[in-house]
Amino acid sequence: MSHLTLDQAKTIADATLAEGVKLGFKPLTVAVIDPSGDLIALQRADGASPLRPKIAHGKANACVQVGLGGRAIHARAEQQAYFVQALNGLCDGLFVPVPGGVLVRDSAGAVLGAVGVTGDTSDNDEIAALAGIAAAGLAADTGA
């Protein structure tokens, strides 16, 4: 398997939003992308603000573009701010270097895509993403 299927992406998105509701998070938005950064599924909960879809896509896209989870990218941003800003420019602004972006891997460790979640704190966004990925029976890589 080299990419996420539509069914897997829907499962991830549905379970991510459900986890946010279950834990009482603010309204979440979730983007599920393929290894090229193209959207497979995007869901915005009722009450989520209009910019959230771009933020979610940007968190996921950052992960696939550099092959790291959101936590690792965030650490890099703190250490090499100019480099990460250059990456954001190269990605036409679709590079959000914070937790809540999670790589999705298969059992062999290959990257199948990524999930980006936004709407609550970055830590809570990541918690919801991890639940969504687990619901699809796949492995998550936060970069921690």
Structure description:
This protein is α+β, with helices and mostly antiparallel strands. The chain starts with 5 loop residues before the first helix and ends with a strand. The chain has helices at residues 6-22, 52-66, 70-79, 81-90, 122-135, and strands at 29-33, 39-44, 101-105, 111-118, 139-141. The protein contains five helices and five strands. Strands 2-1-4-3-5 form a five-stranded antiparallel sheet.
Notable features of this structure?
144 residues; alpha+beta; 19% strand; 5 helices; five-stranded antiparallel sheet; single chain
Topology of helices and strands:
Layout: H1 6-22, E1 29-33, E2 39-44, H2 52-66, H3 70-79, H4 81-90, E3 101-105, E4 111-118, H5 122-135, E5 139-141
Antiparallel strand pairs: 1-2, 1-4, 3-4, 3-5
Helix pairs in contact: 1-5, 3-4
Query: Can you give the mean pLDDT?
Result: 95
Biggest sheet overview: 5 strands, antiparallel
Radius of gyration: 13 Å
Question: What is the beta-strand fraction?
Answer: 15-25%
Structural category: alpha+beta
Instruction: Give start-end ranges of low-pLDDT stretches.
Output: none
The helix-strand sequence is HEEHHHEEHE
Q: Tell the overall outline.
A: globular
Note the gap between the termini. 25 Å
Total strand segments: 5
Condensed summary:
The protein is an alpha+beta fold and 144 residues long. The chain has helices at residues 6-22, 52-66, 70-79, 81-90, 122-135; strands at residues 29-33, 39-44, 101-105, 111-118, 139-141. The protein has a five-stranded antiparallel β-sheet with strand order 2-1-4-3-5.
